[in-house]
Amino acid sequence: MKKICIALVLFLAVFQLFADEKPKLAVMNFVDESNGKLSKDLVKNGSKLIRARFTRHAKTFFDIVTDQENEAALRAMKKKSRELDRDRKFQIELGKQVSAAKIVISTIGALDKSTFLITSTLIDVQRGIDETAADAVFDGTGKGLIDAVDEIIKQLLGDTTRMNYSAQTSIKPPTNTAASRRIGSLEWSSAYLQNKTWTDAVQYCRDLTDGGHNDWRLPTIDEWRATFQNCPATQPGGECQVSEANGKLDSSAFDRTCKAGCRNGFSQITGRGWFWSSSGRLGTDHYYVIAVKNARVSSLRVTGRGSVYCVR
Question: The CATH number of 18-157 is which of 3.40.718.10, 3.40.50.2300, 3.40.50.10610, 3.40.640.10?
């Protein structure tokens, strides 16, 4: 009996060890695309900051690869990180070297002299595909960088969140009725989901029953742009040429004005992450997405993960 008890205790200890094991996440150094508008120290400290914030906020989900582990892997590969920060294939190989299940690659670009955009992508290391993307704007200060990094983490981790309306809009916040969710001729679903592939998003809307209706679908990129406020560049008829209604869905229509949006721009509908549209980017495996904050238009690979609202 004593031997059985000892064996049982050992089994439970080993089981708990494996049960507590979490996938590893490697957060790579920032890639500086600000053309010298940001100090090198801020970019360098930003790389340490994003790892520290992921360690703080994502420890429930991941074990974060440390700087020491990264440096040891680089030595083993006989490479210097600053030579290869921009090389996606190398970053994935580095992720494999440190046994990471996923990696985060981030860039910092300048929208203007005092406004900067961080874009981060969560990548599945073994499959080499983008799972989801996130972005946030900041003012070039250390405090702004911290807030932007925290917003990135919220977007990448994902959750299910109830719909709410921006307090910035001049439109009176509606009450919780089916009629109040109508913008123009469209009714929007009462809740949204995060962390869905485009195929999942399409199916979710097809299967949705909300407000007594079951004829929901993904909005087009034009329908999303019609919700934008305070951003002439990406509102309907603006400089951003991406439009299904006008037959302009190829990459030539997708320029900097679409990606930049406006500092004070917003959508009448709020939420976290990039929101899927039903409009594909011609000649690619991407679909157009929008960010409700700053009224930006971008695109995401069909296998990536974004947020979902439905319309009818």
Answer: 3.40.50.10610
